[in-house]
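Fold these two proteins, one after the other.
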Amino acid sequence: MPIDAAKALAAEPRSAEISWTRKDVLLYHLGIGAGVPATDPGELRYTLESRLHVLPGFATVAGAGSPDVISGLSMPGVDVDLARVLHGGQALTLHRPIPVEGTATATGRIAAVYDKGTAAVLVMRTHVADAKGPLWTSDAQIFVRGEGGWGGDRGPSARHEPPAGEPDRVVERRLREDQALLYRLSGDWNPLHADPGFARRAGFQRPVLHGLCTYGVTLKAVVDTLLGGDVSRVRSYATRFAGVVYPGETLRIRLWASEGSVRAAVSAVERDDAPVLADTVVRWAP
């Protein structure tokens, strides 16, 4: 069996040094659509080094592009075809604001392996800390088609009850035709997002956008719409990737706000509001 759950869970954590510069931060921000309009003072906080702050979603690419997913696939007990792999969900907990430049140690391990019958789900947990202490903790849910059915733990349901009532805010974000090509420069080189032939082999009509790009676009919309652009207030952010996004589409982001948090649902406008992010929650400090 390509996935040996016991071996994966028993494997020792792996640690590696990661580092990033303000150029990496700027590139990530451009990759999720920052800078429109280019002279807007709010956008300049994402695109001008003299005013730069770091959107917490940058944690998903800091140092290695897509470290959680790629690292998870290289762990002992895991041997799968990349064409069968999808990023099923992502959770991020911020311990303090991410510095514009830094060096840190990322320590990761497989925290759970679930048998969903027709697929397996690996949870790759990564703790990142620098000389001053913990920075963030992330959980990547790695969905591997065709690798379930061994009778293992099915795991908890990731689905929440839908938010009640009409959303408090609705935000739309148009994606560039070359959004995936720009985003992948932050380090996620999976050919699914650029190579039409590979995308077809994986079952898609054409290359799809990185789920973590949609993740970043959505978090930026929440920060800009509900937090006055203050990235330092974000404490956690979790989502389930419910469907694909194609570059050039428009994201419709529905927001249901409450005290200290917001629930979001994201869909693709041009495909009759096909869901792309679900069970999405951002929590923040006052």
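Now the second one:
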Amino acid sequence: MSDTAAVGDAEGISRATGFPYKLIATDLDGTLLRSDESVSRRTRDALAAATEAGAAHIVVTGRAVPWTRHILDDLGYQGLAVCGQGAQVYDAGAHRLLTSVTLDRQLAGVALAKIEAEVGPLYLAASRDGLDGDVLVGPGYALTGALPSTPFTDASDLWTAPLNKIYVQHPKLSDDELAEAARRAAGGFVTVAMAGEGIVELLPLGLSKATGLSLAARRLGLKAADTIAFGDMPNDLPMFAWAAHGVAMANAHPELRAVADEVTASSEEDGIAVVLERLLGR
């Protein structure tokens, strides 16, 4: 993905012709990325054509920067990325963190206690703040993929440095059941997001992909009415509610498909490209 494919400059946005949106917001896992974490040539070309027509592209992912940076670097992505479920706005070209929101650790501790009082002991992990923040993984927590992490055994280690989020898993409850129970028990203290299989997260109250995307869009002089968004999981719901047009992948969670303006092909079948090519008249 070239520099122009990553984000359109002000001049490019002003000369937009034939493409109905000035901003394309794409989730990563299950949306822009295929299962092997690659982006197809067809999807790269469609994004490049859309940005050449004047649109900006912003990656919006639940992954914090340390788990996102290597993917953006491999893609040659030079634009803005919204990471950590909206907690971080990252300038990929400059390798610089522009904004970062941290979790109130006292509220998070109260939230965890309330959730465990309802469902029993949880398996825990946590993402520390910063460009190089560790992901701490506790006993029993099943980490998805081969991403870098640091094990811990003493739960007090969670609270020794600023955090973006806490991950929770349950030995018996499904992700949907755990997310629902967590919202019921602690929704007044934290935001609960389900970002993928085995990924239920506790975030700063009120934080979502939409809050991070709105900040990034504002830096480009763009707004919700300019935006088409692509996603696949319930954590994309706020982004869809914010954007003018929400497109769910064929592999999307039923909850997201139910509110999407349209459903495209899966991430494995170039679903983003299918929509962009249509909008470009190709």
